[in-house]
Write a structure and sequence with these properties.
two-stranded antiparallel ribbon, mainly alpha, 7 helices
Length: 241
């Protein structure tokens, strides 16, 4: 069996997981001076609908998250691409929320380089963190490839993300490993979260892994299907609203 951490064009799941190999350390220091200035949200048409403005993401950020999501989750026989699954919408809503603004996060310092178990140790809110990270990542890809990340071809995007993940990409005043970790986490959450939050459109990831959705809808069948595969149409929060 092909290891999930190694890319293999013959194994779609392995190709989707090749970025999971390293880079699990979090909470290292970053220069707050890199934080991008506030910009107006981008007005971008959603697939199959009239143009609608994103809540907080700029056009540059929408392009970056779209490219990153589609590189991590390419369209194949398992699911549509990450962006077609609604990941960018999920990210936009999360970063526009109280969480994105740093609610309930201690951000008064001092901010020291610390071990991952100490948690988030940065002065930036998640919204500021991703704005600064995208700015730093695009600056690096312009230097390394001559263009922004979203304009790279598929192979170059993979190379760029691997370089950022491993720390080989010299992002100016920004920790590339931490940025990759947080980016990967946000994309994964958008892909597997309940569709009510904007991602996992049409419950594609749940159908892919056989997750039935809300536990309450099949709790009475646990004994009947013990050690057996349970196949059912996934149910989300929205189905009970």
């Amino acid at each position: 069996m092909t290891e999930k951490s190694k890319p293999d064009d013959r194994n779609p799941i392995a190709r989707r997981n090749f970025l999971l190999g390293a880079g699990t350390a979090v909470a290292t220091a970053v220069n707050p001076g890199v934080a991008a200035q506030a910009q107006q949200p981008a007005a971008v048409p959603a697939a199959g609908s009239e143009p609608a403005a994103y809540l907080t993401l700029t056009e540059t950020e929408v392009a970056f998250f779209t490219a990153a999501a589609d590189t991590m989750i390419p369209a194949d026989e398992l699911t549509p691409s990450g962006s077609d699954c609604g990941i960018v919408t999920f990210v936009d809503r999360q970063l526009a929320s109280a969480w994105g603004g740093g609610a309930k996060m201690y951000r008064n310092g001092p901010f020291r380089k610390a071990k991952p178990e100490y948690g988030y140790q940065l002065p930036l809110s998640p919204r500021e963190f991703f704005a600064a990270g995208i700015k730093a990542a695009n600056a690096w890809t312009r230097k390394a490839y001559g263009k922004e990340f979203d304009r790279l071809d598929t192979k170059q995007r993979e190379e760029a993300l691997k370089a950022i993940e491993s720390g080989k990409a010299a992002l100016v005043d920004f920790d590339g490993k931490e940025f990759f970790d947080q980016l990967l986490q946000l994309v994964m959450e958008g892909f597997f979260a309940d569709p009510i939050y904007g991602g996992n459109k049409n419950k594609v990831s749940w159908k892919m892994i056989g997750f039935p959705g809300l536990p309450a809808v099949y709790a009475n069948l646990i004994d009947e299907y013990r050690n057996k595969r349970y196949v059912a149409e996934p149910q989300s929060i929205a189905d009970f609203s």
